[in-house]
Amino acid sequence: MIHCSTVEERVHMISQILAQPTHGLVSQLSRTHQVSRQTLYRWSATGRQALEEALGKPVLPMKPSTSVASLVLTMLIETHASYRGIQSGLRSMHGIDISVGKIVGIVKEAGQRAMRWMTQQQALTARALALDEQYSSQRGKAYLNVIDVHSGQVWASVPPVEVDGESWILVLWYLREQGISSLSTVSDGGRAIQEAVSQVPGEEQHQRDVWHLFHVAAQVQGRLDRAVKTEQNRLPAIQRQAEREANGQQARGRHPKTQLPEQKALLAQVSYVADGVRYLCQQLHTLLEVVVPSSDRLLSSTQRHSEIEALLDLLDELVPSATPALQRHIQMLSKQIRLALPQTLLFARRLDTMQEQASHVLGPEAVALVAWAWLRRAVLGPTSKHLLQGLDPAWRASASDLLAAWDQAVRASSAVENWHSIVRPHLAVHRTLSAGMLALLAVWHNHRIAPRGLHEGLSPLQRTGSTLSHHHWLAALGYSALAA
Fold it and tell me: Is 0.90 topped by the overall pTM?
């Protein structure tokens, strides 16, 4: 609608708004000139834009070889931007005006391409797979993720579904249909995953993540240490009260619940339990290492199992010595380890045969020495390949197989936790992620070159040995990779 005011009147009103944006000015001009506030705001925005263009505000031209879709997808994935953040960034950095609806359409189409790309993933060899759930904002639902343990490649990432055995069975069968066979699987021991792997043929041998057990042990140890510190903090006040009473002075403050001898005995008791649990947890760490050298040989999985059983018996003996409040925590730790022990030592049982064969060739003492060096490879290596060069040439053939088996031993699901850390920032921005968005993230991650670390210069696809020709995630989806 064209207002009846003249050009001069409009210029005068706009100049006042731009020059003197005081409180109530727009309302006053609206009443004086019979113009709505919305119209005044629209005129002032037009006037400001005209002034900026007239005064030479730099506008960055878009590179002719760079597509808008590539810019949108790069900002979406690389910067964790929201749709309105992408809109603002394209306008300020590239001088591109694009609607939010257009951005949504670009992301939706790219997501469909990414989902098609994910169905084309293949593994030339059997893979070790890490399984885990990442809970969403929807009650009882989670994202189901399957990640390659050794390469970090994302094989599947499913939008929020019910966390039960049926959901995981469908995911595992989907991977089978895609031609991805599992050499082994590992998880934190969730019930839904346990139910699924027990029902899918070929997945019965499922490794339990050792780090989740270590985490439970650290939590219990933390509670014990806090109890020790609490009793230590009470001791000085009780000592002061005892000294005042011994000197015939009147006691101050609240009367302590325990006398000095009783408090010292309680502190000694709690400290004894805390130190005992700490020692046993340290031994548990040692016994769940990939290899455990003894004086002249390596411990087998059977020997490790016996040692851990003895360790748990000692842990149970500490329960009566603990205070009632701490007893249930120690009992919970013992129960968790006992239930998880058979699956936790699965990686050790898989190594037994190869270690026995190497012991027949090299001798048990030589194998124990190689294992001792492998445990310290960060200092002596820093990799197994460098470590192998320092061994006797007569040992290298057998030692090479041993070192490779130890390097490939699967006892943790850390790879899927790394994927969760990538998904989490996008969840914070978008609240929920569709199948297309998860596929986009997976394609980007699978093509990403590691900037540092042991895998520096390699992407998850390259570490898996994939034969896919594209080396950039945008190119794999059919977009120009020049914007990235």
Answer: no
